[in-house]
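Handout, section B. The chain below has 139 residues.
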Amino acid sequence: MTDRSPKKAAHSRPELSDLELEIMNVVWELGACTSAEVIDAVRKTRRLADTTIRTVLSNIRKKGYIEQVPSMQRGYRFRPTVDREKVARRSLKKLIGNLFDGSARGAIMQLIGDESIADSDLKEIRKLIDERKSRGNRK
């Protein structure tokens, strides 16, 4: 998926609140969707009023994370304009900056120290580290 909004780069959009991010995750999962489809999906995990969800969708649209696209059906469909990975990368950088003084090492050490990480996940992490080392220390 490409960034369809020429007005703002992904890093310059206002950040999403926790609720906006929760609903944005639903939109990413559904792809192009109606507000009714988002409401149905959100209601499976959380009790929110239809108006609240529609207001959050409107706010997300104003921030440039989704756009309305015409539909053959009544109304509009929403579609993401930013990849989930771009938002995740920016959010992670902010989290590392705020909680670990910008130290990726500190964040990784915290995660690795978590006993709930499965051995299979640790093996995958080791594989990623080995691949990164074999490519060199390029950024």
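Note. The helical segments are 18-30, 35-43, 50-62, 84-99, 104-112, 119-135. Compare this with the example in section A.
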